Amino acid sequence: MNLKSLIHARLDGEITPEQLAQLEELLREDWQARRLYLELADLHARLLQQPQIAAGRLPKKVVSVSSQTWKSFLPALAAAAVIALAFTLWPHDSPLPEATSNGVAMLSQTMDAEFEQNSMRSGDTLMPGRIKLTKGLAQIEFFSGATALVEGAAEIEVISAWEARCVSGRVRVHVPPAAKGFLMHAPGMKLEDLGTEFALNVKNDSSAVHVFEGEVIAHTNLAPTSLTQGMTLGNTTDDFLRINELQGLVKERQAHRFADWQAWSARTEKDPRLIAYYTFKHRPEDQWDRMVNNLAQPPQEQRHGGAVGARWTQGRWPEKEALEFKRPGDRVRMNLDGTYAAITLACWVKVDSVDKKYNSLLLTDGYDNGEPHWQIYEDGSLMFSIMYRPASAPKGGKPNQIYHSNPVFTADSLGRWHHLAVTYNNQSGQVIQYFDGQEVSREVSALHQPGRDISLGPCEIGNWGLPTAGHQFPIRNLNGAIDEFAIYSAVLSAEEVKAMFETGKVE
Fold this sequence. Notes:
Distance between the termini: 60 Å
Shape: globular
Strand content: 35-45%
CATH architecture of the largest domain: Sandwich
Oligomer: single chain
Helix content: 10-25%
Number of helices: 7
Keywords: Disulfide bond, Signal
GO molecular function: sigma factor antagonist activity
InterPro entries: ConA-like_dom_sf, Ferrdict_sens_TM, LamG-like
Protein name: FecR family protein
Pfam family, one: Laminin_G_3
Number of strands: 28
Radius of gyration: 31 Å
Number of domains: 3
Structural class: alpha+beta
């Protein structure tokens, strides 16, 4: 299409994305093209002032408009043309809605916990509702500042940031001064905390409370009763829950989990399908702290990575290291040789914010044929793509195969460790994406052609080292941390991905 046809298509709302890209490029490069656009936009605005013309009907009698009257419309028409041009040149993506959360508390820690709601895990934001803990320990932190330690079997109803109900089980509550007035309901009583620490046992619809520190006002069918340190109301045959029980058990459990993962990782290093395996672990013989060792066996030192800018921080466990990516320069540089028929990418990542249109997990330099890109899209979805540009394809086209999952990173899942994985087979063309061991998308691109090689070459974890020339979104550094990254020359099964998650999860 020529320039005039493109402008008319834009003004009439019939332009395609490819045509719009062509028009925008012409307008940027040629001032005469911009002047023609303004003239046609002006004419288009005038026609819209005539309802009969806009509706496709001509009036029987055309009334002339005086020159002075017409001149009064010129400023408005010029403004309309400028606004139309601004809309043409400005990015057209609609702004994403602001992330919100309706939570009133969070599940801050657990120890061997099993819930009736199977999907619950540490870090979850809690909405008002009932929680049934069948076994183990769970710590709930209310947004008011109050903390409740619950032992299963127990049932707790979260009412608001300032109120909860113990239906059954053992609970210990700590209320700092800022949460004074927190209410805990139980069968036969309501406890108003005045800044204290107390324990509550509920069994067979019978309640007993003991105050360890401060003061609690107990409202029963009698007059309100003030309970102070050392006082008990009600009868129970069970001990009251000790507050230090969870912290000690959690540390012990973390040490066991880390040891289990280390044993699994040592076995994984010997997997012959590995292209590279980075656990972000310093070796005693490392001479500098910028080295990111490739632990895949047999050793291939040419595939070691180098950290640039990214800072060392704590990983999933206190004893584990990770790299934190915050600034536009933060990255891990690698050079992964070879061509492959299949690939699996898997990592443990803590995303602090999805603050760019594209947020890098692993990107190759540039974007040549056979090179995969793995990113988090601005809506929180996982995005995998691979480039196969025919020799005849124009540079402005979209020959790459792009695959999106549904959004998985939300306001409630940020700041926590998650396991991500994606598999691609160059014969079937099928891409499967996983989030925390669960499949979240499965797709074959309409552009897929079987048998085309996959290659990585110079590439980066957490950034884009060599953006394609003139790209609109060259800055793609991750905002978060990574403490394990594995790259395989095969498609891992769903069972293998699930095992990676189960072995590596913190709890």
